[in-house]
Specification:
The protein is of the alpha/beta class and 349 residues long. The chain has eleven helices and 14 strands. The chain has two domains: 156 residues, Rossmann fold (3-Layer(aba) Sandwich), CATH 3.40.50.300; 151 residues, RecF/RecN/SMC, N-terminal domain (Glutathione S-transferase Yfyf (Class Pi), Chain A, domain 2, Up-down Bundle). The strands form three sheets. A six-stranded antiparallel beta sheet has the order 2-1-4-5-6-7. The chain has a five-stranded parallel beta sheet with strand order 8-12-13-3-14, with helices on both faces. Strands 9-10-11 form a three-stranded antiparallel beta sheet. The longest helix is centred in the middle third of the chain and has 41 residues.
Amino acid sequence: MHVTALHVRQFRNHKEYRCRLAATVNVIYGSNGSGKTSLLEAVCLAYKGTSFRGHDKDMVHRESEWYRVSMSDTSNIDRVITFDNRGERARKQWTVDSKNTARLPQKFRYPVILFTPDDLRLIDGSPARRRKYLDDILSQLNPAYHTALRRYERALVQRNRLLKSRDVSRDQLFPWNVILSESGSMVIAARRQFVKTVNDFITPKYQQIAGATNDDEVAVDYTARDISAQALLSHYEDCFERDRLQGYTTAGPHRHDIQVSLRGTPAENHASRGEVRTIILALKYIEADMIAVQFGMSPLILLDDVFGELDSTRQQHLIETFNDQQIIITSTHPIEGIDFAHQIRLAEG
């Protein structure tokens, strides 16, 4: 499946814009502020059901109180999203295959791989950012992971609320410890398996994009060992006094992290910005490959300002890496050297 047409009205800074898209590489180029990223956001909204930038009210054009996004693709199922902020209560509706719903049904969601400049902070940003990266891709790959994660997060909120009380007892925490240990062990196991799969492929993918002929190696390490539900339960019980003094749950997958190394040293300290960008792109390729294997379909590839700080060789290798998928790229200028790319100029305003 690939997207064939995009049409937005009163969306972000677009009063109205429409374009046709090719099945291979599409380059949407224009000056900063012309609305390139907004078009990627519209595609993401139509196929994933969520935005990567903000809330519905933020997406409405400054001179309007509503927006409309419509997409056509080769599945012959048109998608229309409308949001209306007029009246006492805002109203949002998806119309897919002539059926109206308040949310995008799971059966009509389509996998999307997104790269934004914010992803460059994955390497040197906070542990919370890296946990979110793991949780987002694993939730997309496996709905059961999403369920376990939500269950863990809800129990964590309740346990932390109890820990605010000086009189909290072990018995009060025990039911929440059980839920945290059961769901937490599932989260840890899934994360560790994902990291193992990433390590099987990330070095060759990095070298494929970089065109590296040296011994550059990339490795990803999950900072916690595999642990059974029973062992994790015992750990929560053992942490009772420390948690009570701190007033929050000090251990568990909500505190874990991943570390990325390049050539055997921490990438956050030694990798250049171009190398960091190449590592992230290699991760995105692995995500796309895992989704294709899991669901038997190639995801849409959305690359926002991806070619910044990549030389022409890496740009060409990147396109070749994603050569069997539909790609939509944003750039401030046309991309040279890709003869088959569909170049779309976006005028400011």
